[in-house]
Amino acid sequence: MRLLPLLLVVTACATGTVSTPELDYSSADIQKAIVNTLGVGLLPAEGNERIYMSNPFRVPLGKRGEAVKNDDVVRAKAKIAVVGDRRPYVIDVTVFVDEKDDEGRWSNAGKDERLARQLADHIQDYLARHKDKNFIDHFRAF
What we know:
alpha+beta; seven-stranded antiparallel sheet; 4 helices
């Protein structure tokens, strides 16, 4: 029984996905935070409105993502999933890193958990700084 928590930690770290703590914000506020934090736009959702794929952005990640330039040899893309059917939500962030070869083709270099953590932290910071003043949306009758 003592190995179960350790096993869960090891498997969670091996995925390259970072999860935020529960966030008590509306789904619209979370989507706005994702868009503003990434700064490079999102690819169209494929049937699921709570999974966001970013356009490629430059590495290293600043406070806001920047578009990839022609001379960059490394770029990243983020997959962000808003988990839960109602508040509080959890955000799962996965960052995929691509490298450019000598012929100018991009190839997948793997996942970057450090960048995923940084992006998740930026999203949480944005939400904390831009609390919505819409009290009706935050009202729970029961």
